[in-house]
Amino acid sequence: MIICETERLIIRHFKLSDSEFILDLLNQKSFIKYIKDKNVRTITDAEEYLKQGPMNSYITHGFGLNLIQDKGANKPIGVCGILKRDHLDYPDLGYALSEKHSNKGYALEASKAVIQNAVTDLHFNKILAITNYNNTSSIRLLKKLNFKVIGSIKFYEDQPEEMLLEYSASKAINK
Q1: pLDDT band at 131 (very low <50, low <70, confident <90, very high)
Q2: Domains of the chain and any CATH numbers
Q3: Is the pTM of this model over 0.90?
Q4: What is the C-alpha separation between 108 and 104, in angstroms, rounded?
């Protein structure tokens, strides 16, 4: 299912056939450094990750993490979507790009489209984001998207506190 499209990208629900891409993405140094080592080491692990994570979220919440596909090359380049986590009051934006597709504006383009979809189709007024304090490119991206820092959060038990940001649709529209 296609969630949204941009000039260069298709943002769609995951399929099990995307497991090879997920295996590669989740094991990239930048993903492990700035997000978390998800211990996905095999195609079977990647399939389980997709089933238990994004695909389960589509069923449970009606939304979730999606695949970003390059229209021109017809290949996956990253993930972007809205997630609902039990310990957060509002849904949050999640994204990651394969290292070879970073710094080309894809994350900004995909995130804008996903946020627009969340506000227009899902009627979300607030969206959170969580990022590592050392991930300057992610912080810069979130600020371009009009996210404002609202505090810190200990997201993973085995990792330090991270920056918590908030996007308010009503404030963004009034700008």
Answers
A1: very high
A2: 2-173 (3.40.630.30)
A3: yes
A4: 9
